[in-house]
Amino acid sequence: MRNIFYIFIGGGLGSVLRFLVSNHTQKLWNINSFPMGTFVVNIIGCFLIGIFSSYFLKADNYLKFLLITGFCGGFTTFSTFSAENISLWESGNYFILAGYILLSIVAGFGAVYLGLNLSRN
């Protein structure tokens, strides 16, 4: 039951931070129809989950529930990523759609890899 509490707290904090970072980023970098706010949040989340996984995934303590499952789960957002892709598709922004998907996957993979390797050294 205690682990559920840690997930709840981490998820709430991650969700609020996602909202703040995404909105602020979208205002700073409004590039055509590209959903920069969600992109930045998801790449930061990938980097953080790489770092957190390196430290806490093997340990049996509350921090993996608080930071990995809770915070990163609340901070990153695959559902918004998917909805934005549908919107880009429906509006005919196929070039931006393809770029968003490709950049998200490549940069996300790279950010997890970087996070894992930086925290191991």
Describe this structure in words.
The N and C termini lie far apart (34 Å). α1 (2-28) packs parallel to α3 (62-75), α2 (36-56) runs antiparallel to α3 (62-75) and α2 (36-56) packs parallel to α5 (94-120). This protein is mainly alpha-helical and 121 residues long. It has one domain. Helices cover 84% and strands 0% of the residues. The chain is built from 5 helices and no strands. The radius of gyration is 15 Å and the shape is globular.
Keywords:
121 residues, mainly alpha, 5 helices
Q: Proportion of β residues?
A: under 5%
Largest sheet: none
The best one-word shape is: globular
Any idea how many domains? 1
Coarse structural class: mainly alpha
Number of strands: 0
Mean pLDDT: 92
Radius of gyration (Å): 15 Å
User: Ranges with pLDDT <50 over ≥5 residues?
Assistant: none
Query: Can you count the helices?
Result: 5
> What portion of residues is helical?
over 70%
Order of helices and strands: HHHHH
N-to-C CA distance: 34 Å
